[in-house]
Amino acid sequence: MVDSGTARRDRAGGDGFAYLLVQLGFHLAGKFAERLAPLGLEPRHFGMLTRLAANEGRSQQAIGDLMGLNATRMVFLVDELEQRGLVERRRNPSDRRSYALYLTDQGRAKLREAHEASAGHAGQVGASLTDAERTQLTALLRRLADEQGITGTSLPGPPPWAR
Questions:
Q1: Given pLDDT bands bounded at 50, 70 and 90, which one contains residue 163?
Q2: Does 161 fall in a domain?
Q3: Please, are residues 92 and 59 in contact by the beta-carbon 8 Å criterion?
Q4: Could you tell me the end-to-end alpha-carbon distance of the chain, in angstroms, rounded to an integer?
Q5: Which residue has the higher pLDDT, 153 or 133?
Q6: Is the Cβ–Cβ distance between 107 and 85 less than 8 Å?
Q7: Does residue 45 form part of some domain?
């Protein structure tokens, strides 16, 4: 007799490795979104604010390229964050045809709050793992991400080649 867990793993394809990663990814993304929601943010906003904090003053296009976003999606995302008072566009002094992006004071404060929410999320994820296991798992997941062309600067969502 085959237990239902084994049957599910078999239907998902072999040992269910990739399927389990997908399930876990969706579950954790939902939990992260729940932590950000009281702040009025979504994971994509957190990703953008984090990338912008490390690249202030760069052009909107350069930051979009860094994150793997096409120009249209980047405009919509920046528009949303600008309307909320978290980001501002300034004329790029080296190229008046483009805009440089900056966090506002309100954006910096919101990012600090979001980092606190993120730290709480990280503390819950893998709470059953030892520090050594977390380090090992992180290294293995980074290797898989690198293999798939997913960088640390990418926003959550479809990989750049699928956008």
A1: very low
A2: no
A3: yes
A4: 44
A5: 133
A6: yes
A7: yes
